[in-house]
Automatic annotation (TrEMBL):
Organism from which the protein derives: Leptospira vanthielii serovar Holland str. Waz Holland = ATCC 700522
One GO molecular-function entry: xenobiotic transmembrane transporter activity
Pfam family, one: ACR_tran
The protein's name: RND transporter, Hydrophobe/Amphiphile Efflux-1 (HAE1)/Heavy Metal Efflux (HME) family, permease protein
Domain of life, per lineage: Bacteria
Gene3D superfamilies attached to this UniProt entry: Multidrug efflux transporter AcrB pore domain, Multidrug efflux transporter AcrB pore domain like, Multidrug efflux transporter AcrB TolC docking domain, DN and DC subdomains, Multidrug efflux transporter AcrB transmembrane domain
Any one annotated GO CC term: plasma membrane
Length: 337
């Protein structure tokens, strides 16, 4: 057999060289597509449910959120361990599945149980949500947004409502984690003395705000051959509209407006951290890769989009990358161009 193979190779040199070249080309193409990463990802199959409830202490988080979730997830098919963390305002419950379990199937199982748990947790304490399909090694690209002309609140708003939305549309990107800046809030600062003087409670004011801040439909009216859609527009569009919400009406029909018993203003949400660069406050963001993706390819797409975003940033804003996974996994032998 070997003699025949050698004889064929000698007599058909051109054919052998062509076949060899084809196999070398196929090998080179596949080598360039190999998902080379900085370190091997040995993360087990796990699904995490996160619940945010800023008003609760760790004890209440454990009692009202974490414990009910653990009870319901206990005994889920394929699960071998359940871990949980209860912190001030945050509950995290992770279900570890057997190796080889399809992560999407595992998420479906957990999600079905969470729908049951959602009915057991008081609505004001939040609702459990599944964490993104990523691992601890999913951080592939990090950058900061800086500006000498914009406030931390404006930087954070632009990051959350513009850049993050665009970056999430990139294939292979599952999440954008943002740190720094201040979250913009419409804050209602009630005067306690005026509240008591008018015999009102905070819950009553909250109910009035909810009742006033929504749009509704009213069907339609026929006008000749046309149908005119009826809309009731009540959603707030600014501070002045919030101030004009009637919280009580006297017997004479005179309304008591919210602006008469409270200050309404735009302010920052309570912060638990800050991001700085060279002593200056910035907004930082981390691009998280979808589980199982090729980090080199995903980072390449992110860099391409970032170069486009650089040209459309508001005047004064700068986007500065400081971590790129592809720089770690890049491989370029000496003399290779």
């Amino acid at each position: 057999m070997i003699e025949k193979l050698v004889d064929f190779s000698i007599r058909r040199k051109g054919t052998v060289l062509l076949i060899t070249a084809i196999f070398c080309l196929i090998g080179l193409i596949n080598a360039l597509k190999l998902p080379i990463d900085a370190v091997p990802d040995v993360t087990n199959v796990q699904v995490t449910a996160v619940t945010s409830s800023p008003a609760l202490t760790p004890f209440e988080v454990e009692q009202f959120i974490t414990y009910p979730i653990e009870l319901e997830l206990n005994g889920i098919p394929g699960a071998k361990e359940i871990r949980s963390i209860s912190r001030a305002g945050v509950s995290s419950v992770s279900v570890i599945f057997e190796d080889g379990t399809d992560v999407w199937f595992a998420r479906q199982l957990v999600n079905e149980r969470l729908k049951i748990v959602d009915t057991l947790i008081p609505p004001e304490y939040g609702s459990p949500e599944l964490a993104p399909v990523a691992t601890a090694l999913g951080d592939i690209y990090e950058f900061v947004l800086t500006s000498d002309k914009h406030s931390p609140s404006e930087l954070r708003s632009y990051m959350d409502w513009d850049l993050s939305k665009k970056l999430k549309s990139i294939p292979g990107v599952i999440e954008i984690n943002t740190l720094g800046g201040t979250l913009k809030q419409y804050q209602i600062l009630i005067d306690p003395k005026r509240l008591v003087a008018n015999n009102l409670t905070v819950s009553e004011i909250l109910d009035d705000l909810k009742a006033a801040n929504f749009n509704t439909g009213g069907g339609y009216v026929q006008k000749g051959s046309e149908q005119l859609v009826i809309r009731g527009e009540g959603q707030f569009e600014g501070i002045e509209e919030i101030k004009r919400v009637a919280v009580r009406t006297s017997a004479d029909g005179i309304p008591l407006l919210l602006g008469q018993i409270a200050r309404v203003e735009v302010g920052p949400a309570l912060r638990f951290g800050i991001a700085t660069q060279k002593g200056k406050e910035v907004v930082a963001a981390t691009v998280i890769m979808l589980l199982g993706q090729n980090s080199r390819e995903v980072v390449g797409r992110v860099r391409e989009k970032i170069s486009i975003f650089q040209k459309t940033l508001p005047d004064g804003m700068k986007l500065e990358p400081f971590y790129d996974r592809s720089n770690i996994v890049a491989f370029k032998p000496a003399g290779f161009l």
